[in-house]
What we know:
157 residues; Aminopeptidase; alpha+beta
Amino acid sequence: MEHLKSFVPTEDKLNDLIQKLQDNRLYLSDENRDKETAAAVVMSHFYFGRESEFYEIGDWQGLIGVVDIVPGWRGELFFKLWDKSAWGPSLRRELSEAMDTICDKYKLERVSLSTPDGHTAKIAESHGFVIEGVLKNSFKWDGVSYDTICLGLDRRN
């Protein structure tokens, strides 16, 4: 894959990821944006016995992966693109390939995604995810409330 490479969670990359999650709009809700809580969120995806797999987008322009994997059943999509210039048709295709690779490797039947970002939800829908519900007023960014869109991809079909 031209735009994606396997993510190696070095200390520098993890610290940078924590900062990006704190700074980028709609990545972490207000109550999770202090450094300690943001670090706990990131570390939970890499070090606490949970299965996960990530790909780095471009030259550290974003990160895609599946977290909280239960092999043979489910996982949750993690998708953050902090450099929007990386977006394009070839990246879209590669993201689908990466998802398929991860899902096939772990034999996932279901992948879920929860996001307050309508644009992210639209991208997920273009990859076969369907909206399964909306959690009203469940996410805050700089004191402004957003709804969280819950999407799912049933791979059994």
